[in-house]
Amino acid sequence: MLLSLLLSLVGAVVPARLTFTAPPAWAPRAVTSMMRVSEFVLPKADGDLEDASLVIYFFGGTGGTVQANLDRWFGQIAQPDGRQTKNVATALSRLINGLSVTLVDARGTYVAEVTPGSPERFNKPGYRMRAAVIQTTGGPYFIKLMGPLNTIARWDKEYEVFLQTLNYK
User: Fold this and answer.
1) Which one of 29, 88, 118, 151 is most buried, by most CB atoms within 10 A?
2) Exposed e or buried b for every residue in 48-66, given b needs 16+ CB within 10 A?
3) HSE (CB half, 13 Å, CA atoms) of 108?
4) What distance in Å separates the CA atoms of residue 28 and residue 8, rounded to the nearest whole number?
């Protein structure tokens, strides 16, 4: 905030960025990569063994097409009956505060790479991913909420409220 004020006083242009308001119960954690804008821990629901995590990514204006990201996310969730996740997940687009946002909701076994490029994969049944691609004039932002089914369900309403706070200024 102070930096923005100082830059505006000297005539410098402050680049726009995605802004949002996270619910107070989401615990912020230190970002682990320059490509991560923010990270939050969403406390686990009764009966679940793990917390959920929400990460907001920005790759400097790149990051692939909306469809490429949807396909990658669908590949991170396997269906117990062998169906393709893209055939059972929901994906829809809507405007939020003037921003085009594509939303994904997928359930199944979390099978993403443990780290990018790693041959080791997670194997976590009973997981749910809620993800979003937010298109801005500076490039896309990506939100990925991942965790056990009950925990994600516990935070559904707060996630929807959080999405309504997205702005690009």
Assistant:
1) 151
2) beeebbbbbbbeeeebeeb
3) 24
4) 29
How many domains are there within the chain? 1
87: tokens are: 């055939």
144: tokens are: 């990925």
Distance between CA 140 and CA 163 in Å, rounded?
A: 15
In this structure, what DSSP letter does residue 119 have? S
89-103, pLDDT tens digit by residue? Answer: 999 999 999 999 999
The SS3 assignment for 149 reads: helix
List the structure tokens of 108: 């199944």
C-alpha 66/C-alpha 90 separation (Å) is 14
Q: Which residues on adjacent β-strands are paired with residue 36?
A: 57
Tell me the pTM.
0.89
